[in-house]
Design a protein that fits this description.
The complex is a heterodimer of chains A (about 110) and B (about 550).
Chain A (H helix, E strand, L loop, with lengths): L1 H20 L3 H22 L20 H32 L4 H10 L1
Chain B lengths: L1 H24 L2 H4 L1 H23 L2 E4 L10 E4 L1 H25 L3 H19 L3 H19 L5 H32 L4 H10 L9 H16 L8 H8 L2 H26 L4 H22 L3 H21 L3 H32 L10 H4 L1 H15 L5 H12 L3 H21 L15 H30 L7 H13 L3 H22 L4 H7 L5 H18 L1
Antiparallel strand pairs in B: 1-2
Classes of the chains: A mainly alpha (about 110), B mainly alpha (about 550).
Chain lengths: ~110, ~550
């Protein structure tokens, strides 16, 4: 359990590092996607322990996983997917308009306009 | 009760269904359907006002689920106030954009879809649905921002989308911590849970961290000081009608969330932090607004400063401060929408957007300049306008002398921004274009409401409190009586004139000569990485402060 949490937090850390340092817009979007996935992972992890049953009424008695976070996180995954799709679409447009996908170059072209 | 639920859901689903129908059928005739929808929705909001004023706030549980896990809609006067604003705003924007966009079914689709999402956003009573709807608002408005698909707009759209979504990841993180502690995401139940813990006494707990994350996410949405950079970009690049929509209304969705979160958590020691946060936002907005050469950028930064002022009023935590805040939200929404719509007309007519080059609006567009001038007067809080009432209530709500003087600094700054802005009215017009009828109609709706707001605001407040609909306390009622008596005597007028004189003096001494300092500020831009870093820094500072 602790190990899982550590992994999820580490992924968040890596993605944060990536989002702060990567110059490429596509990389930023990927890092952004990763950070969302890691948060969702964390949410799911904290909802139950190892060895808990799936949340379906059955003969087997025992501790069940909390189903609410899973239901919520499916929505969050959909949102994350649509944001990724939209931002990738915009970056295609940006490449057509400016000929670059570099944040720094874009900022410089901003100054000229 | 069943009917009320139908009304509440109708507000959400009517626009969305209309949008889908318009998109599927793609016939010009269907585009006129938005006006029918809008008419029905106006009726629904009026009906809900009547019900809420009679029976108190409404609560609905969708799908028969229990409160703990289900989706819960709730309509209270605050939500209704925002709904009224939304209805007025969408009327104005639809009519304004009609001549230009009546065949553009995609634009109409997104515009009316956004209305449904916004109505849903105002009604939900749990944090997760709030999150979902905020994301829908972000995505839809990002599409509308980059609708023109020119270089500046797509860049602004990407910046807006990514930065706001990053804010929402922060929100999701806060949600996680909150769910771990409270076991539910319903706002009422969380408020009850927080009552049982000694949240206010303990200096640090998981709940505090959760609060900070939610709070910061809302600060991002409402463009408070260190995380404001997306707003001027997006509002400058968007089409005029969308700028008005974003700057007048959608920016306030962040404030609405902020109000809700603070109501739920009831943090004790936040007053000072919030006040100085608001003050910094207001001051920063003013300094940037004065330095900008672009007419829309000036207005966008002025929005930031007004949001700062609203947060300053909110920070006082008193009923009076909250009243002032609500009124000012309303007045700012009207005034800023008029200014943005007017700026759209001007940019269309002149073809360029530098304040220094645009002259002679009054000669060229007398009607437009009267509307815009009224908006400016209301914005700076001149007597006999709606802004005068709200600004003076905010001033009365300030807690200490320091706060009052800081408020005056912001007031003078706002005057400074608009003295510089109003230079566009004087002089000879270089070019006169005919203003479209629909544009004129859209602006005149807002102007009429703004003009009327001066007369109906105080009676409306009086009515609310005499029926103890809000948190109405006796003290507040006395203060309101005091305000309505003293508002019209000379002292306020004199104070306003002194402030205007000071602002003009500052304008003549510092802004007019055009020092290099302003140029440096004008070109100051925070790039995406620095914006994310400043967001992270903001989180850590808030974690230390709380």
């Amino acid at each position: 359990m602790i190990f899982d949490l550590f992994i999820a937090l580490a992924i968040i850390g890596v993605a944060l590092y990536g989002i702060c340092t990567s110059d490429n817009i596509i990389k930023s979007i990927i890092c952004f996607n990763i950070i969302q996935a890691a948060t969702i992972l964390l949410f799911i992890l904290l909802a139950g322990e190892h060895g808990d049953l799936i949340p379906i009424i059955s003969q087997i008695k025992g501790e069940m996983v909390d189903p609410l976070p899973q239901a919520l996180m499916i929505t969050a995954i959909v949102i994350s997917a649509s944001i990724t799709a939209l931002s990738l679409m915009i970056s295609v447009k940006i490449f057509h308009a400016y000929g670059t996908l570099n944040w720094q170059d874009l900022t410089q072209k901003d100054g000229k306009k | 009760m069943k009917m009320n639920l139908l009304f509440a859901q109708g507000l959400i689903f009517l626009p969305i269904i209309t949008a889908v129908l318009i998109y599927i059928f793609n016939k010009k005739l269907f585009n006129y359907g938005i006006f029918l929808t809008q008419l029905i929705m106006t009726g629904l909001v009026a009906k809900l006002w009547q019900v809420v004023l009679r029976d108190g706030p409404l609560d609905f549980y969708l799908g028969g689920w229990s409160k703990k896990i289900g989706v819960n809609l709730s309509i209270d006067p605050l939500a209704l106030l925002f709904m009224t604003m939304a209805i007025i705003m969408w009327w104005a924007v639809m009519i304004y954009a009609w001549d230009q966009r009546k065949d553009d079914f995609k634009f109409i689709f997104f515009l009316i879809f956004l209305e449904g999402a916004f109505m849903a956003f105002l009604q939900v009573n749990d944090f997760f649905t709030l999150f979902v709807l905020m994301e829908i608002l972000t995505i839809t408005s990002a599409i509308l921002i980059l609708y023109k698909k020119d270089g500046l707009a797509i860049k602004a759209g990407l910046y807006y989308l990514l930065f706001n979504s990053f804010g929402m990841v922060v929100y999701l993180f806060g949600l996680l911590l909150l769910y771990l502690k409270a076991g539910t995401l319903n706002m009422d139940l969380i408020a009850d849970y927080i009552q049982t813990t000694n949240f206010a006494q303990v200096s640090f707990s998981v709940l505090h961290v959760a609060f900070v994350f939610l709070f910061i996410a809302m600060c991002v949405k409402s463009a408070l000081f260190p995380v404001y950079e997306w707003l001027p970009r997006a509002h400058t690049a968007a089409p005029a009608s969308i700028s008005a929509l974003l700057s007048g209304l959608l920016v306030k969705s962040g404030l609405y969330g902020l109000i809700r979160i603070i109501q739920v958590f009831q943090v004790e020691n936040l007053d000072q932090v919030l006040f100085y946060l608001g003050f910094l936002t207001a001051l920063g907005g003013i300094v940037f607004a004065v330095s900008q050469s672009d007419i829309k950028a000036t207005l966008a930064f002025s929005t930031i400063s007004q949001i700062g002022l609203v947060v300053m009023a909110f920070a006082s935590g008193t009923d009076l401060g909250h009243t002032g805040m609500y009124l000012h939200l309303f007045n700012h929404f009207l005034a800023k929408s008029i200014l943005f719509l007017g700026a759209g007309v001007i940019i269309n007519a002149y073809g360029y957007r530098r304040i220094r080059e645009i002259r002679g609006i009054f000669m060229g567009h007398p009607f437009l300049s009267i509307a815009m001038f009224l908006a400016i007067l209301s914005m700076v809080g001149a007597p006999l306008t709606a802004g005068f009432i709200s600004k003076n209530i905010i001033k009365l709500s300030m807690l200490s002398d320091i706060q009052v003087s800081l408020y005056r600094v912001v007031g003078v700054g706002t005057l400074l921004v608009f003295i510089r802005f109003s230079k566009i009215f004087v002089g000879e017009p270089s070019r006169v274009n005919k203003i479209q009828v629909s544009q004129m109609l859209g602006i005149s709706i807002l102007t009429l409401v703004l003009g009327g707001a001066f007369f109906f605001q105080l009676p409306a407040l009086d009515y609310f409190y005499s029926n103890s609909l809000y948190l109405g306390s006796a003290i507040l009622k006395d203060t309101l009586a005091y305000i309505s008596k003293t508002l019209y005597d000379g002292s306020y007028l004199i104070e306003f004139l002194i402030m205007a004189g000071t602002a003009y003096l500052i304008y003549g001494l510092t802004v007019k000569p055009g020092y290099k300092f302003w140029k440096t500020i004008r070109h100051f831009r925070i790039n995406f990485h620095d914006a994310i870093l400043s967001l992270l820094a903001f989180i850590s500072i808030m974690l230390m402060v709380i």
